[in-house]
Automatic annotation (TrEMBL):
Keyword line: Glycogen biosynthesis, Nucleotidyltransferase, Transferase
Domain Nucleotidyl transferase, residue spans: 8-259
Domain Glucose-1-phosphate adenylyltransferase/Bifunctional protein GlmU-like C-terminal hexapeptide span(s) in chain numbering: 291-363
The protein, known as: Sugar phosphate nucleotidyltransferase
Signal peptide: none
Family according to the record: Belongs to the bacterial/plant glucose-1-phosphate adenylyltransferase family.
Domain of life: Bacteria
């Protein structure tokens, strides 16, 4: 029996506004995670381990930040003569050209290409979550279910459920109810933004919906498409039992890093059976100087640590000078914390320079400092502050 022909579409075009300063100059999927990775590394690595060799990435906001990282797709074995990695930017020239206004709208705009590919199953995944999943197993379950869509689901905290598409699941995994970001969620079972569709019926349905939705358009998958498929009994759920974390907000991004500096992190990113791949090889080994003190932290290549680092994640090229203190924080590439400075419960974007004696953050809300900002010596940014990058 021939293997099913699978196409993966990674939706990497969202603005990522909830990440605030972190996405002012980069696409959300290009945001660093865990020191050396980018968020898009997770769905791309899942595709590689699932033996899916045709992967399309829909890009839109700050596309160069993604193109630079994706290059030719080599880290994920997608640099192929036939198939492999294809990026899909916004375009003009047909009625489907223009700016994407949501995930369903993006799918509709690429419908002609998807039909031409003629896949047996279409895997659609977002690029703003941290998880491992064998997409091919979901495809096999989907193709044997008679469903038009299979929604991968996970359990979320009750006070967080209104951020997601919430499903009610009946016998045999059939989805009996679906609500997109409801004010009063019926359950805590949420879609984790991974879906397997039957391509032709789904695209036909999108065409019909597009003619009826009015000026607002198709918007996101959860706005019109998934409710329609659910209402006709054509949706199934596939529960993800392992770790999944949406890092689309600053607090969630910070909290996820806290989970990965634990003695036993929720995912082994270096598991030889399922490593997370990224574009690398551009940094030397980390240097921890004799006077440094480091505990419960992730230290990336190319960093130099001479101060006190506790419960933190240091990305490539970070420098923590002797006499500086970094506690419970995430420092993105190229940050420098100078002698006598203190950084607490903060996220510092690329190239931030914290002057001698400066104090950033404290107990309470996460403090966020934008790219290439200069925090003058002896200045103080209170907990919860938002310090943007300099203009010009």
């Amino acid at each position: 029996m021939a293997l099913p022909r699978i196409l993966a579409l990674v939706l990497a075009g969202g603005a990522g506004g909830r990440l605030e300063l972190l996405t002012e100059r980069r696409a959300k999927p290009a945001v660093p995670f865990g020191g050396v990775y980018r968020l898009i590394d997770f769905p791309l690595s899942n595709c590689q381990h699932s033996q899916i060799s045709d992967v399309w990435v829909s890009v839109q906001f700050h596309p160069t930040s993604l193109h630079d990282h994706l290059a030719n797709g080599r880290p994920w074995d997608l640099d192929r003569t036939v198939g492999g990695l294809l990026t899909l930017p916004p375009y003009k020239g047909t009625e489907r050209g223009g700016w994407n206004t949501g995930t369903a709208d993006s799918l509709w705009r690429h419908a002609d290409l998807i039909r031409e590919f003629d896949a047996d199953a279409l895997v659609v995944a977002s690029a703003d979550a941290v998880y491992k999943l064998d997409y091919r197993e979901v495809v096999h379950a989907h193709l044997g279910s008679g469903a038009e869509v299979t929604m991968v689901t996970t359990e979320v905290a009750p006070d967080d459920a209104s951020r997601y598409g919430i499903v009610e699941v009946g016998d045999g995994g059939r989805v009996t109810g679906y609500a997109y970001k409801p004010d009063e969620p019926a359950t805590t079972t949420a879609t984790n933004e991974v879906f397997v569709f039957n391509p032709s019926p789904t695209l036909d349905r999108l065409e019909a919906l597009n003619g009826n939705v009015g000026d607002e358009g198709l918007e996101d998958l959860g706005t019109h498409l998934l409710p329609a498929q659910t209402a006709e009994g054509l949706a199934r759920a596939y529960p993800l039992d392992g770790y999944w974390r949406d890092v689309g907000t600053v607090p969630a991004y910070w909290e996820a890093h806290r989970e990965f500096i634990a003695e036993e992190p929720p995912l082994d990113l270096d598991d030889p059976r399922w490593p997370v791949h990224t574009r690398g090889g551009r940094r030397s080994a980390a240097r921890v100087l004799s006077q440094a003190h480091v505990e419960d932290s992730l230290i990336s290549g190319g960093t130099r640590v001479g101060g006190d680092v506790r419960g933190s994640v240091l990305s490539p090229g970070v420098v923590v000078e002797a006499g500086a203190t970094v506690v419970d924080s995430v420092l993105l590439p190229g940050v420098r914390v100078r002698a006598g400075a203190t950084v607490t419960r903060s996220v510092l974007d690329d190239g931030v320079d914290v002057g001698r004696g400066a104090s950033i953050g404290g107990e309470g809300e996460i403090t966020l400092v934008g790219r290439a900002a200069r925090v003058a010596g002896d200045s103080e940014l209170a907990a919860g502050a938002r310090f943007p990058e300099p203009e010009g």
